[in-house]
Amino acid sequence: MPNGFVYILECSDGTFYTGSTIDLDKRLHEHQNGNGANHTKKRLPVKLVYVQEFLRIDDAFYREKQIQGWSRKKKLSLIEGHFDELKKYAECMNDSHYKEWLRLRSATGNDNKKELNQLVTERSRSHGKLLLTGEYVVLDGAISLAIPTKYGQSLEVETITEPKLVWKSLDENEVIWFESTFEINNKVSHPVRNDNSIQNDLNVSDRLIQILNAAKQLNTNFLNTNNGFKVTTKLDFPRHWGLGTSSTLINNIAQWADIDAYRLLETTFGGSGYDIACAQHSSPITYQLENNTPIAKPVVFNPSFKDHLYFVYLNKKQNSREGIKHYNANKGDLNVIRDINDITSQIITSDSLEGFEALIMQHEAIISKLTKQKAIKALMFSDFNGSIKSLGAWGGDFILVSSKENPTPYFNKKGFKTVIRYADMVL
User: Fold this and answer.
1) What is the DSSP annotation of 138-157?
2) Share of the chain above pLDDT 90, in %
3) Is residue 268 within 8 Å of residue 253, measured between CB atoms?
4) Which residues are paired to 127 by β-bridges?
5) What is the pLDDT of residue 9?
6) The pLDDT of residue 120
7) Single pTM value for the model
8) Cα distance between residue 146 and residue 132, in whole Å
9) Distance CA 260, CA 250 (A)
């Protein structure tokens, strides 16, 4: 068996790509010329920032899968050689699986493929999203400020010997909210009958089948195997919060299928794609559609007054497609995009709470006039002593609140029990 290499590339947008190969020079040349993975060819140029050689390519492959499950901070510690910092991170399941892989391979002489295949596990995690500026006009090219959240969704894929797809989805309390088994042939088909399973939501099944088959169309090798897969997803937040249950799933499946998450979103749910950008980044970004091409740029947004910022859940989960439909039917003069861009730029560099509040009030007034909708403060919280801004599709999900005093008692009295400090929400 040939030697193998694990490598990490830093892409032009600051994201990392981890791969393995038996010919490092050839593979790097492919990446730089746009013939590598889907993730890198959309983010050229790329730069080699880490490489590790193994005596066996299968060990390199497994190390690749292990590193892919790590957080950005842990990858940075590895790249920068801060091995003491690596020890500070709790040992992830990938580490345990890797040790067990080596133990089994040593004990079986690498011939017991059934046992080894059952240990091959891929993991990915995507961040949730909040759109602080831009809202609907991001669809028409506005520059928006988007924030990845600490809350997100993980996906774990374990190879199994049976040729089927066993799917389980857990909520934030690790309670199963969806469970089913699917056929894998030329495409993913409707669930296999299982009288012992919990009652399945057919809409969820149909939507999941749509996403997986769209992924197969974008990469014909995806799920094209004699093996099957056991997939477990886990949310960090309640599904009704609107932080990106669907977008984080799409991004995780795209990583698993080695395809472009933006293209998978386009062929399934649609939308601007800012939620995919948040899923892939670990810091605030500006997001813009330029000739329908998504452009995400990391920015420094760490306001000195963040202790006075809060997110309040309105308990009215919005349908983004309906919101976009309303916007397209009612939008007025798009010359205001220049004003939105200017406000976004000023918000990013804002150094006072008063200045920030003035900017979000200007922003609310522009979007209110453009979409012919009443601003949320005037509609529901006219007596609140502070500023309030709608986020995403107006009328539900979260609002951004600025207040010199803790606003929790005010909103609790109004019947809104979920009030989250900025620092507890934002990554």
Assistant:
1) GGGT--EEEEEEEEEEEEEE
2) 52
3) no
4) 152
5) 95
6) 47
7) 0.72
8) 6
9) 10
Contacts of 123 (CB under 8 A, 6+ apart): 65, 68, 69, 92, 93, 94, 154, 155, 156, 157
What is the side-by-side strand order in the sheet with 309-313?
Answer: 387-390, 398-402, 309-313, 419-421
Strand pairing report for 398-402 and 387-390: antiparallel
7 in Cβ contact with 27 (< 8 Å): yes
Q: Which residues are 289's β-sheet partners?
A: 294
In the three-class reduction of DSSP (H, G, I as helix; E, B as strand; rest coil), residue 231 is classed as strand
User: So what's the pLDDT on residue 227?
Assistant: 78
pLDDT confidence of residue 373? 83
* Structural domains present in the chain: 1-119 (3.40.1440), 285-425 (3.30.70.890)
pLDDT digits (tens, 9 = 90+) for 214-268: 999 998 888 887 778 899 999 999 998 989 999 999 999 998 888 899 999 999 9
C-alpha 159/C-alpha 33 separation (Å) is: 32
| H helices present in 109-243, as ranges | 113-119, 202-218
CB 71 within 8 A of CB 150: no
Tell me which residue has tokens 């960090």: 236
Please compute the mean of the pLDDT values over residues 313-321 and round it to a whole number.
70
Upper half-sphere CA count for residue 37 (Cβ side, 13 Å): 22
Q: In whole numbers, what is the pLDDT of the chain averaged over residues?
A: 84
Return the bridge partners of 178, or none: 169
Among candidate residues 313, 369, 366, 411, the one with its CA nearest the CA of residue 133: 366
- Give the lowest-confidence range in 48-57, 119-128, 156-165, 405-414: 119-128
Q: Is residue 80 exposed (0-12), middle (13-18) or buried (19+ Cβ within 10 Å)?
A: exposed
Q: What is the mean pLDDT of residues 259-281?
A: 92
Q: Give the H/E segment covering residue 121.
A: strand 121-131
The CB density around residue 213, as the number of other CB atoms within 10 Å, is 17
Residue from 186, 193, 174 nearest 212 by CA? 186
Name which of 367, 340, 365, 352 is nearest 402 in CA terms: 352
Residues 144, 287 contacting (CB under 8 angstroms)? yes
